[in-house]
Amino acid sequence: MELARENAAIVLNQDRERIKREEGRTIGAVKEIAQLLGMPRISRMEAYDISNISGFESVGSMVVFEKGKPKRSDYRKFKIKSVDGPNDYASLEEVLTRRFAHGLEEQKELKEKQMDQELGSFSRFPDLILMDGGKGQVNVALRVMEKLGLNIPICGMVKDDFHRTRGLYYENVELPIDDHSEGFKLITRIQDEAHRFAIEYHRSLRSKEQVHSILDDITGIGPARRKALMRSFQSLQAIREAGEEELARIPSMNAASARQVYEFFHRKEQTT
Question: Which of 55, 52, 58, 51 minimizes the C-alpha distance to 85?
Fold first, then answer.
């Protein structure tokens, strides 16, 4: 009986330590971030990132953390519709506008139906918005909030020259964080998760079954040449406007394939 009591006490103490560490990584870390920003409390945080395939397929990611833990059921991904080429600022503006405009519509519908706000996937707004980037990304988010009449605190997750989390940009000031603190580690996890989720969606669109480029319709243009064209030009419009000599200088291209591309676009123009 004595041995059983001792073993039970050891297990209980181990569980207490584990729970304490987990709370430090999550709730404790959130409290550190709130204190750093001068906010009374934070429960829900949403982070946003943009990724693109050489500018041809831009996508946005939204990841959600509640009480310091990822809430994957609320993650959202956005395929950019209104932006041509690799323009992260314009893409972020589209993503944020779609997300929060949808949320406002959902809130209105729920209010009219006298339903619980929690039933809407977009209706719950965050206590804090985290942007992958600094001043530029934060200013885009502030502009969207002003346009929609919302007042939600916004931070930029700033990276150093080695693409590692450095600090938070908040109210026109970069706030350095102790890189050994739980708050810093949580911000790093959130930033990495937003990037991972964007890249994951971005990669899913790269499969030939899901992404069909007009370049696929050109005789003699296979995957290698298609990728080379996309890397060298920022948009289909730029390819369309390029001359045969310019196209032939692209790696893996030659005079014959350049003529195929040139004639394809100009033949289409002549028949429209």
Answer: 55
- 147 backbone dihedrals φ, ψ, rounded to 5°: -65, -35
User: How many angstroms separate the CA atoms of 43 and 33, rounded?
Assistant: 11
* 251 CB burial (10 A radius; 0-12, 13-18, 19+): exposed
The verdict on 109 and 177 lying in the same domain is: yes
Q: Coil, helix or strand for 164?
A: coil
Residue 5 lies in a domain: no
Residues 75 and 121 in one domain: yes
**In a domain? residue 71:** yes
Percentages helix, strand, coil for the chain, rounded to the nearest 5?
55, 15, 30
Residue 3 lies in a domain: no
The range of the structural domain enclosing residue 236 comes to 214-270
| Domains: count for the chain | 2
Q: Is 245 exposed, middle or buried (0-12, 13-18, 19+ CB in 10 A)?
A: exposed
Entry pTM = 0.69
Q: Which amino acid type is present at position 121?
A: S
Residue 237 contacts residue 84 (beta carbons within 8 Å): yes
Q: Is residue 55 part of a domain?
A: yes
What pLDDT was estimated at residue 211? 41
How many whole angstroms separate alpha carbon 33 and alpha carbon 135? 19
Cα 13 to Cα 9: distance, rounded to the nearest angstrom: 6
Write out 91-145 in H/E/C secondary structure. Answer: HHHHHHHHHHHHHHHHHHHHHHCCCCHHHCCCCCCCCEEEEECCHHHHHHHHHHH
Choose the final residue of a domain: 149, 171, 204. 204
Last residue of some domain: 147, 174, 204? 204
Give the separation between CA 144 and CA 106, rounded to whole angstroms: 18
Q: Which residues of the chain have pLDDT under 50?
A: 208-211, 268, 271-272
